[in-house]
Amino acid sequence: MFVMQNAPGSAVELEGIEARGVEVSVETAKFDLTLNITETEEGLAGSLKYSTELFERETIERLAQSFETLLWGGVSGPGLTLSELPLLSEAERERVLGLWNETGVSFGGPERLHEMFERRAAERPESSAIVFEGREVSYGELNERANRLAHYLRRRGVAPEAVVGICMERGPEMIVAALGVLKSGGAYLPLDPEYPAERLDYMLRDTGVKLLLTQQRLADRLQDGPAQLISLDGYGTPFASEDAENPRHVASADNLAYVIYTSGSTGRPKGVMVTHRAICNHLLWRQSAYPLGEADRFLHKASFSFDISVWEIFGTLAAGATLVMARPGGQRTADYLMSLLAEQGVTVAHLSPPALEALLAEPGVSECRSLMRVFCGGEALSAELQERFFSLLDARLHNQYGPTETTVDVTCRDCEPGDVGRRPPIGRPTANTQTYILDGTLRPVPVGVTGELFIGGAPLARGYYNSPGLTAEKFIPDPFATSPGARMYRTGDLARRLPDGEIEFLGRADQQVKLRGYRVELHEIELALGEHTAVRRAVAAVTGEGAGRRLVAYVAAEDGRSPTAEELRRHAAATLPEYMVPQLFVTLPELPLTPTGKVDRRALPAPEQFRQETSDPYVAPRGGTEEVLAELWRELLPGQAVGVHDNFFDQCEPSHRARATPLRDRTAAAHALRRADDGGPSRAHRAGLARRSGRGGRAAQARGQGRRSAGLLRTRAPLVSGAA
Question: Model-level pTM?
Answer without folding.
Answer: 0.72
